[in-house]
Amino acid sequence: MKPNAAFTPDQNEIVLVLDDIRDPGNLGTIIRTADWYGVKHIIASEESADFYNSKVLSATMGSFCRVQVFYTDIESYLTMARRPIYGTFLDGLDVHQLNFKEGGLIVIGNESNGISRSIEKLVTQKITIPRYGNAESLNAAIATGVILDWVMNQKKD
User: pTM here?
Assistant: First the structure.
């Protein structure tokens, strides 16, 4: 087992922050998606699913070896952050209108309740994926993939 160790991300790095992701399949898929897009670090709330849950490990398809997940009190962590904090909301700014070249923290909310109120007040920019159909919301792991696709395409330019 890896130690639950804090890390210092590079200044222009994109780091995912998971606010109470409870479903092990979602957590594993988020880790795998992060690995696909080159995200090396994830901060997870203490209430998020256990990294060593067999469903999490299975869903990562080996990506758990390459992505570091640090469980902590994310409110305290974000309070100390000295970088942009983007939060995923249904009423945020279209993610395609933002420039992520400077890096930052991207908060993904709970599957049922979204980002908690205590974390929402720390978000410096609310973002959203534009909706064209009638679905109420996206799955947390799918939303992470859509956002990372846009973010990392910008960073490679």
Answer: 0.95
